[in-house]
């Protein structure tokens, strides 16, 4: 559906994005992550045809964004971080105005707009002035304009910025629903949001893609603690070590300080590829040692992000940081 090849954008001597290559399949929801100044917005602006690349190619559903801009742009709906809405228009007026701008045919237009409003749950405010709507509803109206014309691709830049927790949850559900009808690219700084709705993640830093894949695959490839679990047991260290003697596959035992009186926390790791969770559970049950906690020690998406983008805070986590520092620009160039 989307192909990006050798994409580069330079501003004078500064390279905002450098030789990006990636593809996105139809129906995927892809999270686009990166620190401020990494090049996310620049990349999305090039993909939508808003600005030109210095070199490289972008094709949307087989259409080149430069060679066939009008047809390619019909395939794209874009929601920037600030919704492009007009406060003095009513919702219905605004969406009809957008349909006119996009050249949507009159035949079937009413049915299309009704369908969009129902999908985004804004049909009950269709007669209200946009300026009188809450931030959450204005964001949905902005997304509705991106969906007018039924584009194959929806690109969203920080769609939940400024929303309250309830509105964020509602918007996440909307985005997940979009994957049934559109290919979606979602740029966000909220890691929980990306984990909740995206099939795949691309992390960009200093104009280059430094990693891509599912959060689980990225965690496995980066995690020096892959296969480790942490447990909390109502016992002492001697009892635990004695109970674990029968397990030859365990290659690592590290006793930690526990936050609960009468318990100990322990890091355990088995041989590569061996899932030790069920044997550990049965072991402690057999030895009458209450197991109060068991959790994976895989990296979270936030830890993956900080590791790959070289944030100095990762040093405190015990991970090696890339040699270069994170760009400190307040916004993408």
Give a written overview of the molecule:
The chain is α/β, with parallel strands linked by helices. It has twelve helices and 14 strands. It has helices at 40-47, 69-73, 91-101, 109-119, 135-147, 165-178, 191-197, 215-222, 237-243, 277-286, 301-308, 314-317; strands at 2-11, 14-24, 29-33, 55-60, 63-64, 76-79, 153-157, 183-187, 200-205, 208-213, 228-233, 250-256, 264-270, 291-296. Strands 6-7-8-3-9-10 form a six-stranded mixed β-sheet, with helices on both faces. A four-stranded antiparallel β-sheet has the order 2-1-4-5. A four-stranded antiparallel β-sheet has the order 12-13-11-14, covered by helices on one side. The two termini are 26 Å apart. Mean pLDDT is 83; it is low at 312-333.
Topology diagram in text:
Layout: E1 2-11, E2 14-24, E3 29-33, H1 40-47, E4 55-60, E5 63-64, H2 69-73, E6 76-79, H3 91-101, H4 109-119, H5 135-147, E7 153-157, H6 165-178, E8 183-187, H7 191-197, E9 200-205, E10 208-213, H8 215-222, E11 228-233, H9 237-243, E12 250-256, E13 264-270, H10 277-286, E14 291-296, H11 301-308, H12 314-317
Parallel strand pairs: 3-8, 3-9, 6-7, 7-8
Antiparallel strand pairs: 1-2, 1-4, 4-5, 9-10, 11-13, 11-14, 12-13
- The total of beta strands comes to 14
The gyration radius over C-alpha positions equals 25 Å
Mean pLDDT across residues: 83
Number of helices: 12
The residue ranges in which pLDDT falls below 50 over 5 or more consecutive positions are 312-333
Label the structural class: alpha/beta
């Amino acid at each position: 559906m989307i192909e990006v090849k050798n994409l580069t954008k330079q501003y004078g001597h500064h390279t905002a994005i450098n030789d990006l290559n990636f593809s996105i399949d139809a129906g995927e929801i892809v999270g686009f992550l990166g620190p401020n100044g990494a090049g996310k917005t620049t990349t999305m602006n090039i993909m939508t045809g808003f600005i030109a690349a210095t070199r490289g190619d972008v094709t949307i559903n087989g259409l080149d964004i430069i060679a066939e801009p009008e047809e390619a742009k019909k395939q794209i709906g874009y929601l920037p971080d600030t919704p492009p809405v007009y406060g003095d228009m009513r919702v219905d007026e605004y969406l009809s105005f957008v349909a006119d701008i996009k050249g949507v045919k009159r035949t079937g237009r009413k049915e299309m707009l009704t369908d969009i409003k129902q999908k985004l749950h804004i049909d009950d405010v269709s007669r209200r002035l946009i300026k009188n709507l809450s931030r959450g509803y204005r964001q949905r109206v902005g997304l509705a304009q991106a969906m007018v014309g039924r584009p194959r691709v929806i690109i969203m830049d920080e769609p939940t910025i400024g929303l309250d927790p309830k509105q964020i949850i509602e918007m996440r559900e909307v985005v997940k629903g979009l994957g049934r009808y559109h290919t979606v690219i979602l740029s966000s700084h909220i890691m929980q949001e990306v984990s909740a709705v995206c099939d795949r993640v691309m992390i960009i830093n200093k104009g280059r893609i430094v990693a891509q894949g599912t959060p689980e695959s990225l965690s496995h490839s980066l995690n020096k603690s892959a296969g480790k679990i942490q447990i909390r047991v109502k016992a002492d260290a001697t009892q635990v070590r004695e109970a674990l003697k029968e397990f030859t596959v365990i290659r690592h035992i590290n006793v930690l300080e526990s936050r609960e009186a009468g318990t100990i926390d322990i890091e355990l790791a088995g041989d590569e590829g061996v899932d030790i969770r069920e044997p550990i559970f049965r072991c402690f049950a057999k030895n009458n040692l209450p197991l109060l906690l068991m959790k994976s020690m895989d990296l979270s998406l936030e830890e993956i992000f900080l590791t790959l983008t070289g944030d100095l805070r990762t040093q405190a986590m015990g991970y090696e940081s890339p040699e270069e520092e994170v760009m400190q620009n307040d916004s993408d160039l």
